[in-house]
């Protein structure tokens, strides 16, 4: 097994990934946030995420589905807002 420091580091990354999940981040958003804000090596973050996926397969299947649905719903809302803005702009003229 690794040194106590490396075990603690992995635990910290694990905890930070759980925080990303609370904020409904997808894997890419989480990796970017951990790299930028916590100076976590992206390879380590990705490896810990993959291990969590292996250990919690059902949870991540549901989570990823929810994230995808949320993203597509958000994209549809954005398109709808843009269409209504164009319509509003046209009626002003």
TrEMBL record:
Residues 65-93 are annotated as: Disordered. Transmembrane segments: none annotated. It comes from the Eukaryota. Pfam families: A_thal_3526. PANTHER family: OS02G0137100 PROTEIN, OS06G0705300 PROTEIN. This is Angiotensin-converting enzyme 2.
């Amino acid at each position: 097994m690794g040194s106590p420091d490396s075990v603690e580091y992995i635990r910290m990354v694990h905890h930070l990934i759980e925080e990303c999940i609370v904020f409904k981040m997808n894997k890419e958003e989480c990796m970017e946030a951990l790299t930028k804000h916590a100076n976590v090596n992206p390879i380590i973050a990705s490896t810990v995420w993959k291990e969590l996926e292996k250990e919690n397969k059902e949870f991540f299947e549901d989570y990823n589905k929810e994230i995808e649905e949320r993203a597509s719903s958000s994209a549809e809302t954005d398109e709808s807002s843009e269409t209504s803005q164009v319509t509003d702009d046209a009626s002003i003229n």
